[in-house]
Amino acid sequence: MSTETISSETAGGIATEERAHGVTLSEGAREKVRSLLAQEGRDDLRLRIAVQPGGCSGLIYQLFFDERELENDAIVDFDGVEVVVDAMSIPYLDGASIDFEDTIQKQGFTIDNPNAQGSCACGDSFS
């Protein structure tokens, strides 16, 4: 795993870091993950993002806390929040950014993925 860090700015001025698996995590998403981990009362969990077959467009995102470290996982530490991507998902997620929205219209994690050629109306799956 590379330890080189590249700082960049995304739309909306969200500062991010990009390493190893190419996924970035906004500061808002980092804060939400830290808050959720504090509620869980565990310090051994990482945020795992994966791509699995399914959904109406062919592929779905899986975003969950995981204590496991599997062979060939790419792990990037974003100021104490570790993001894990399995080797099979890396090509589908390279360049993707994870943010957290908390507005009157929507609350939850969002994934902006430049590799997605299309998505379904619900926004949960892509191709």
UniProtKB/TrEMBL annotation:
Residue span of region Disordered: 1-22
Residues covered by the Core domain: 23-124
One Gene Ontology biological process: iron-sulfur cluster assembly
InterPro entries: ATAP, ATAP_core_dom, FeS_cluster_insertion_CS, HesB-like_dom_sf
Origin superkingdom: Bacteria
GO molecular-function terms, A-Z: 2 iron, 2 sulfur cluster binding; 4 iron, 4 sulfur cluster binding; iron ion binding
Regions of compositional bias (Polar residues) in chain numbering: 1-10
Pfam entry (one): Fe-S_biosyn
PANTHER family for this protein: IRON-SULFUR CLUSTER ASSEMBLY 2 HOMOLOG, MITOCHONDRIAL (PTHR43011)
Name recorded for this polypeptide: Iron-sulfur cluster assembly accessory protein
Taxonomic source organism: Leucobacter ruminantium
Lineage summary: Bacteria, Bacillati, Actinomycetota, Actinomycetes, Micrococcales
